[in-house]
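INFO batch 0412 | record 1 of 1 | parsing
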Amino acid sequence: MAITKLTIEEFLLLAKDYPVLDVRSPGEFKHAHIPGALSLPLFTDEERKVVGTAYKQESKQIAIKLGLQYFGVKMVKMVEEVEEKLRGKKHEVPSGDNFASRNSNIVLIHCWRGGMRSAGVAWLLDLYGFTVYTLVGGYKVYRKWVLQQFEKPYPLTIVGGYTGSGKTETLHALARKNECIIDLEKLAGHKGSSFGNLGLPPQPSQEMFENLLASELKMMHNRCNATEHYDTQPSPVIWLEDESQRIGEVNIPTVFFQQMRTKKLFFLNIPFEERLNFITANYGKFEKANLVNAIIRIKKRLGGLETKTAINYLLEDNIKDCFSVLLSYYDKSYLKSLQNNRENFSSLYNKIDVTTVDNEANAAHLLALTAKEKII
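INFO prediction complete | emitting tokens
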């Protein structure tokens, strides 16, 4: 057997169907990785540091010898770990596949630069009997591919609305209607406001957020351009929620954010009381201490008096009046930022007056209006 080297495009194409093994250190993987990849570290973080230092300060040969010392005692365990990861996941390659034979145990391997780490593990797994593919240039080339995705033009349409309009839920209602959507807040692990991390796990790193977004863009772009999709949508679009560039601790890549700001914005204009009920139902369930901390985080912008008023309402179990104060603040803040960084705002802005936070109905309103506007 022979180890086959793939370009990033070939590698990602196979990655849709076969396991990707990331042989970088646990710390590198934790920071960011190809979405869906499995961690199979050749070295621990400390071992990587030792080998890297030897490479820089002594010689390549000494670094290799150190690496082999670490690698040698791990070989059996690594093979068994790969077998465990693949157990029950054997794939058949469609007839005519350009890369692999049928009924093979196929694995895709990469390290940081496509160097010694991936070469060593690829040699071991190939020797054992796996069909092995490696990524030319490694994760470094993948990151270049990620950044290139943000520079491409996309058929985006933006869903806007004041806080409590159920924009995210409306996006998912659009998805149920076979529309292409990207949920930026889900990828970021944050809902955008001071309260946005409540009930959610820690956010991904900036780099991992970018990897996730690039993967979604590629997938949705392919889906929008699939022949079968044209049967129901002559000119498909990708729906996104109107967001600030910063979502919690991560940022939408500038070049892509600027593209978002040039696209049609459909603003769900929902009465204050309806949105207040929606916010109260969704956020009132969290512990008071967490809500108080979230309010304190925006004290400087909210103002001392309003901060005190909101917290007092909360401590008195008057959740709705507490959120009424906060919703008024967010309405003013969103209105102020709505036109920021948008040229030709009047030609992009489309207001849709709706009476309730009804996600299915509001998705239908969006589709009806966008069809009328002939942007789809």
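INFO post-check: The two ends are 50 Å apart (CA to CA).
INFO record closed
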